[in-house]
Design a protein that fits this description.
The structure is a homotrimer of 273-residue chains. Helix content of chain A is 75%, strand content 0%. Chain A has 13 helices and no strands. In chain A, α10 packs across α12.
Amino acid sequence: MTSTQDATGQNDRYERGLALLQHIGGQERPAVLDSLADIAPDLGRITVEFGYGDILSRPGLTLRERQLATVGALAALGNAAPQLRFHIDGALNVGATRTEIVEVMVHASVYAGFPAALNGLTAAKEVFATRTDLPAEPAAAGAPDGDRFERGSAKLAEVDGHAGEQVIASLQDIAPDFARILIEFSFGDIYSRPGLDLKTRELVTVAMCTALGVAPQLGVHIHGLLNVGGTETEVVEVLIQMAGYAGFPAALNGIGVARTVFAERESHQNSDV
Amino acid sequence: MTSTQDATGQNDRYERGLALLQHIGGQERPAVLDSLADIAPDLGRITVEFGYGDILSRPGLTLRERQLATVGALAALGNAAPQLRFHIDGALNVGATRTEIVEVMVHASVYAGFPAALNGLTAAKEVFATRTDLPAEPAAAGAPDGDRFERGSAKLAEVDGHAGEQVIASLQDIAPDFARILIEFSFGDIYSRPGLDLKTRELVTVAMCTALGVAPQLGVHIHGLLNVGGTETEVVEVLIQMAGYAGFPAALNGIGVARTVFAERESHQNSDV
Amino acid sequence: MTSTQDATGQNDRYERGLALLQHIGGQERPAVLDSLADIAPDLGRITVEFGYGDILSRPGLTLRERQLATVGALAALGNAAPQLRFHIDGALNVGATRTEIVEVMVHASVYAGFPAALNGLTAAKEVFATRTDLPAEPAAAGAPDGDRFERGSAKLAEVDGHAGEQVIASLQDIAPDFARILIEFSFGDIYSRPGLDLKTRELVTVAMCTALGVAPQLGVHIHGLLNVGGTETEVVEVLIQMAGYAGFPAALNGIGVARTVFAERESHQNSDV
């Protein structure tokens, strides 16, 4: 746990972090360092060492997954437009497509409301306008065919399984229309869209719910991520990453939810034996 | 639960939603559709179908009430200035007065703090400056006469009844001054103001508390809305509407609080028999 | 509890508040009053009477402490840039240094994430650029020497004591790396920095956790503030102050957490006898 620090006060965490920040940001000299140089140069160093050298360098998630999770969380929080633009650009630099980024914003309408989605798309448009280097992508999907309720029910079962059914059942006595709306809109309209694979969609959902601090839904969607192919390691990685974008309290409270979910699944497996 | 979809991919949800969006927004061609046309046209369609065709078209609240609830929630969240301006304008288009909108912002000082109130008023000023079509309104109220504590205590009893008294009692051992401040400022200064009727004030309070995710206060003010003439249907409607502006987790957690409050009132009524 | 109101509708709360607002804001005629004059003059009056005359005039915290707490809370919320700038300027007017304000922003990276810290520093730079009247301050600290984990562990023990150890222990089964990261970054890198004394750091932490509504961490850091020399009165004062900047629900929920912490400490003391 000691760091190797050279004569310039830099160390391997700094060098590893700087290389990663250069890669994600697509800049030889990261703008964040210049912007902090005259007011808080230490925070520039810490951003490189901790944010990029420690956290984003961790294995367990691809850089594309990490950037899409960050984009989702910042869009959901809705209060950090400069960083949202930076990480949209960064997502494009590590393999995410414009379509995936648009889908993250559309997905935010479910977890943070339409204003968050619309303002996220405004940020995306601003970034996309600067990126004339990107290849053409297929046009966005049209309205899916078929019945929204049937499609939504199937998707809800696929993603949230038993936990999702419980949410729906719990609404029947008080707001049955809202149960129908949740299935039709959230799962029939949004979760059923192409353009972002289901596992990444749930990863982004976990990031959004962690950043917003909505514990019950975070529990449902940690189950969801595990249901659609995610691993406990991936859950923990996205929670740790959120410490840097929404603060340690958000990450710690998310870890508490994950502990409960993991225990539920372990106990459920054991009872199946 | 199937939709009628015509050859252009539109359906009755779209047509109903578009007519309502045109009415609220006061624009033949809603700007949100143009803004999304090149990046996420599906979200434009979904905004019309879901946001306006499904949610805002529901019975149970007037459009004026719905718009004032949205204005309150967006002012409290403080992170969606473009949408706040749009919905202030929309509130004026469906019968809300400038005085009512100002009062919603002043009310936000209690639930989201003075910065939220001040920034909400800045948005209101920007919108009002574009609306030379509106009739003059009476000048704002001056300072109410009389004792703030007496006036606040009476208003607290009227709105929050037993739940409000419990909050005050619970503060006596730890922060008795804060109990007095809460009565004098929140209820003596703000709740006692003219310009926004008490039922709408509580409806807006429920919207704000749902958007902010403050469950204990949401419970107190669901009681409050029911105490001043609101119905359980109106409570559920404003909670459902918040799904579109603060996300489904906020709405679902609000429904959970409402279930508890409705059960408390049912059990209380039964014990009175 | 009656107010003395003179012929102009003003009273001692107004006069006391106006004098304090002039002092903090450094303006003979506060801009907030002009900005509200044509839209909500009552809110201008209430801001003076309640915000400054009632709350910020209270004893129990210095104005420097109060302003740094407000700066921390607004930086953490990240949705009120005009007020953040005003209160940074105000902090400078009542004795806080630029270094302390920078440290509050750096500290925000732990509790609200790096975007909050970066945007807070942008606001600080904007304010500092207008303040050519301030004396030079020593340059910012460089990277501390020594092992981050050892330094962090010692600082965690100093600040959070038993509550902090419990947090770390609870992470061992699910995210042991995150326990190490929390110690190394939060306590080894940030809490160990010079430029802001430990008691003020914890006071700002309590303000941030109250504004963000993260109850478990608020509990840990109310303990922390009391562990590093703060008093129960100071805890209550900063919670009351947050009513004005994050709303009464945030303050009330914070008071609930404080009640539990105070009782824990009382019971612990009694069991020591």
